[in-house]
Amino acid sequence: MSEQKNKIHPHKFTLWVAIGSILMMFAGLTSAYIVKRSQANWLMIEIPTIFWYSTAAILISSLTVQLALSALKKREMAVYRMWMLTTTLLGVLFLIMQIVGFASFGGHDIRLVGAGSNASYSFLLAISGLHGLHVLGGVVTFIVMAIRALRSTTRTYSTVPLEIASTYWHFVDALWIYLFIFFNWMK
Amino acid sequence: MSSETILHGHATEAAVHGHEAHGEHEHHHEDSFLTKYIFSTDHKMIAKQFLITGMIWAIIGGLFSVLFRLQLGYPDMSFPFLEDLFGKWAAGGRISNEFYYALVTMHGTILVFFVLTAGLSGTFANLLIPLQIGARDMASGFLNMLSYWFFFLASIVMFASLFIQTGPASGGWTIYPPLSALGQANEGSKLGMDFWLISMALFIVSSLLGGLNYISTILNLRTKGMSMTKMPLTIWAIFFTAVLGVLSFPVLLSGAVLLLFDRNLGTSFYLSEIVVKGEILPNEGGSAILFQHLFWFLGHPEVYIILLPAMGMVSEIMSVNSRKPIFGYLAMIASLFAICILAFLVWAHHMFVTGLNPFLGAFFVLLTLLIAVPSAIKVFNWLTTLWRGNIRFTPAMLFAIGFVSLFISGGLTGIFLGNSTLDIHLHDTYFVVAHFHIVMGVASFFGMFAGVYHWFPKMYGRYLNNTMSFIHFWVTLVGAYLIFWPMHYQGLAGMPRRYTDFSNWESFKNFAEMNRFISTVAMIVFAIQLLFVFNFFYSIFKGRKVTSQNPWGANTLEWTTPINPGHGNWPGELPEVHRWPYDYGKDGREFIPQTEPLGEGEAEH
Q1: What residues of B are in contact with residue A19 (Cβ under 8 Å)?
Q2: Total structural domains in chain A?
Q3: Each residue of B189-208: pLDDT tens digit?
Q4: Which of A110, B37, B136, B440 sits most deeply, having the most CB atoms within 10 A of its CB?
């Protein structure tokens, strides 16, 4: 049986299963949100404007990681490093803008946590926060990969690690798009 | 260690290969103690780590049940030694109410998660997947190692919580808010609850890392010829278990994260208009029922996460020791699949009395009762596998048969509890305790024991002592029924769970003698489990040595490896599979291993 050759790399496959698992977590959270929203004492949430910019940043970063991957495939290492750096910076930028967005609620006298907080905004914080942790995981991965690319003495051109990392990155991007639409739609 | 010399003896001609990737030859490198026994990436060693950690937890969890049974059986007596051991928790030699709740909570948590999830799946998925599908190791040995070490960390945190001044979590293993969310409500809801949540978060990470690995190994690393329908049922069962875990544990994690928010950040996901000890809390607008939905969306699949591996191992062991093919191989897979789907659709049957819409409840009743269909198919197939078999009553086989007995007894009471109307009376009574202990707890333990007795020779190259094994089996089987059978009567009479003392309760004080009886048997059964633990460790070093590669005359691939396989499992090439694993008693031959090509004109099965 030669099916072995056509098979997906086991680590890539593992990532897809993990994506399914992460999706279940956010499915659980967003369904809890829907249940809670239909009950009494729900505040219409206002999405900070800066979230539109962070959405743009993470969307662009999906493009740049793809450019990094194609550069690596062509073995244009300088271009690869440049796009990797851009992607990492965009990831960091996304996180910073998310934090700024949540900090802005303080100015509008909206409490996310603590006494007087409403579950609607707490949900926004908890769900976006967990998403942010997943983005942070991606950023750390990119940093580790970038350091390896700069420092390693043996040249390996295996694209598998970056393929896996980029798939994950596209996933956290798509997940944010889903959450963003969800929050705007289900205020 | 003598087993080492055998292991290394195989590789003398292979000389030193250094750190080679999984090659054609047995790759042999000198492992230090640290890489071989502690930070090992060999699936067999990780399996042993899970098993032994699970055994330590089982002793602790079992001991807790003995302690609270002591209270339930002898509520009017005082045991000064308890005060010596536990101080203020058992002042005057009596178990305090707080201590009692801590004990039952920890007993549940430890046995459900640490023993029957990590100890059972972790052990046998790691041991059997590569060995039975013909792989050198898991898809990612490193993730596999991380899976164990996250479990270890979770264990440390949970164990540490036992020594906190305010005690461990004590709101029940289901940690329902608001009790679990408010530190002022209960001693155990103070620091102990945070430890519980952190430990469980680590545990979930461990479980997910393990599950991902199991799934991708089964789907990607099967040896030549091992199509999905040639896999042993153990592997099928472990596969479905892993799928259940990967899809349901994240939902528990999200529930736990929100609970952590409520506890530490003052949010109101689950909390609403509460007054504790005269103090009005600021929380408003939360829903405690929301937590129950999130919890039981994991909680119910969790039952099958515990049960399915036991079912798989029982199927395999039963076929081997009946010297007959498993009856209805495809029906066994289909029923596992059906259970897996239904597992996600029945969670609200734990919540019939929460004010759930009765109309909605009707659907959950229907779906719950539907589980009887695949369960009955499995029982039928086990019985027909035994039917007119050439049965060898090895300890593993006895435990497998015991599993079927318990699964039937415990399953039947599930039909009572699955009815939302009957549940109004039976909810939170000892009937429920009896039901889930028999069908999930003891039955899965029997599956686990069957697995340990059957694969111990593969793990350690030695046999367990048979006499001790038989004593262990009979006392445990009889004891399990003597403990849990009477609880059905108590439950039908309405006796509720989670009370420390019934002696002042007019309706239930007539059960005092029955409680004392149950407690006495529980202590005997616990003592016999220690005999098993002794047998286990004694036999690792002093057991009778295995002299043949295939001591049980089984067909599956693990018995084609050397008696003490090294890292990589097979010296030389991986075996090739030509037939399904259940060719027993075919064409006048007792068994035909999977590696043997089909004969001229031989039908597949």
Answers
A1: none
A2: 1
A3: 999 999 999 999 999 999 99
A4: B440
